[in-house]
Amino acid sequence: MKLAVLADAHIGRAIPLSIGEYRRRAFSSAFSRAVDSIIGEGVDYVFICGDLFERRTLRPDLVQFVHDELYRLASDSLEKHGKRVKIFVIRGNHDGRPQSDTLDYIKHPLADYLIILDEENSVYADDRLQVLGLGYYDEIGRAFESIIKPSLRSLGRFTVLMLHGFVSGYHEVPPYSSSLTFNQLSETGLNLVLAGHYHKRCPPKRIGNGWMLTPGSLEMYDFAETPDKGFYIADYSTSDPSFKWVPLEPIHLMKQVNVESHGPEKPTQFGSRIMGAVKEFSEELKRRSKPGYLRVYVKGMLSEGYPRDIPLEGLDEIKSENPLLIWVDVDTLDLECPPVVSLYDLERVEAPESFAAFGDFAEDVREMHSRVRDVLEEEASIQTGLLTQSHRAPLINEWVKRFEARGFWRG
Ligand SMILES: [Mn+2]
User: Fold this and answer.
1) 2-247 homologous superfamily
2) CA of residue 78 to ligand 1 center, whole Å
3) How far is the CA of 12 from the centre of ligand 1 (A)?
4) Which of 31, 352, 367, 389 has the most beta carbons within 10 angstroms of its beta carbon?
5) pTM
6) Which of 55-64, 344-353, 379-388 bottoms out in mean pLDDT, i.e. has the lowest?
7) Cα 81 to ligand 1 centroid, rounded to whole Å
8) Within 13 A of 180's CA, how many CA atoms are on the CB side?
9) Residue ranges per structural domain of the chain
C-alpha cells in the first residue's frame, strides 16, 4: 500500500497582488507537478490535508483546473498502474467555514475517487484502512474531542488521521494558537497522523506505534518561507514503512533580503545598500536562468529626511536590463525616522488613538477598522483589491448606524 501525503496547495493565491498572476501560476504549477509525480509513483491513496484552495471566492477556471487535475490523477493511475486511487480531502482555514467551503466546488456524484471528510462524514473505511478527517477549527482540542474521539474507541484496522491544525511537540506553534499535543495523539493508537496547516515540512516522527507526517505547503506562501517545498510518499508494502520526500522546486525565485543600518544613516546610504541587494539578486537570477521577485526589508534609522527621500531611481534601470527580475518591493515601514519627522509620519497611524477624542466611540472605530480589514482579506476583488458594492454596502450601513446611534450631530 502506497500513500501520497500533501497539504496547503493554496490554489488561487495571488498575494502580493501586484504580481498576482505570477503567484497564481506558481501555485497551480506546483500542484500539477505534484499530480505528475503521484501518477508516476502509482499510489493507492492520496491525502490532501487542507487549504487546497486559497480562498472561498476564486476564479471558476481554477476550480475547473483542480477538478481536472484530480480526475487526471485518478484516471492515469488506473490506466498506468491499474489502481483505483482514492483521494481524501479535508477543509483548511482558507477553504472557508464548515457548511460553506470550497470543497463543495469539487464534489461530484460521479467522482467516486474523491472523498471529502467533514463533520457529517468524518470516517472512511474499506478493507485496507480507515481514515478519520478533522478539518480546521478555531478550537482544535474541542473539535478533536467531539468529532474524532468517538471513532477512536475501536481501532481494529490500520487507521489514518488527517487534520488541519497545529500539534505542539511536533510543530513550532505560534503564540495564542490552539493546538493538539503530541502526547495526546500518541495515546490514541493511530497508525498514521497527517497534519496540514503548518507550512514547513517536518521529518516523519514516531508517534506511539505509528508515524506522524507534515509535508508543509506546496509553494512558498510568502516571503518569510523557505523554498524547501514538496510532499511525502509513504510506502507500506512491507511491515516497516519507508518515507520518501518528493521536492517541488518553485518556478520563481522568491526572496526577502534585509537591509539594516547599524546606526543613523542618510537616505543616500540606505539607497546604495538597497541597490546593492537588488543587483546581487538580479545576478543570481541570471546565473540560475530563473525569473524571480524580491522584497527588500529595510530596518534601522534615518539620520535625516523621510523614507521617501531614499533614492531608488536606479531600480528601473536594473529591472529594464534583466527581464528575469519580475518585481522588487522595498519595504521601509519599520525604518525609524529622526524624532521631528516621526510626528508627521502618517504611515502607521493607530486608528483608535487618532479617534481618542471621541471617547468610547474609539472602540467602535477599532471594531469597524478590523472588520473592514477582515472582509477585504476574504472578499476583495482579485482584479482591483477593492470590495464589490454588495460587500461594501453592509459595512457602510453599519457605520451609519453606529454614527447615528451616538447622535454626534446634536452637538
Ligand atoms: Mn495553509
Assistant:
1) Metallo-dependent phosphatases (3.60.21.10)
2) 30
3) 12
4) 31
5) 0.82
6) 344-353
7) 31
8) 32
9) 2-247, 253-342, 351-410
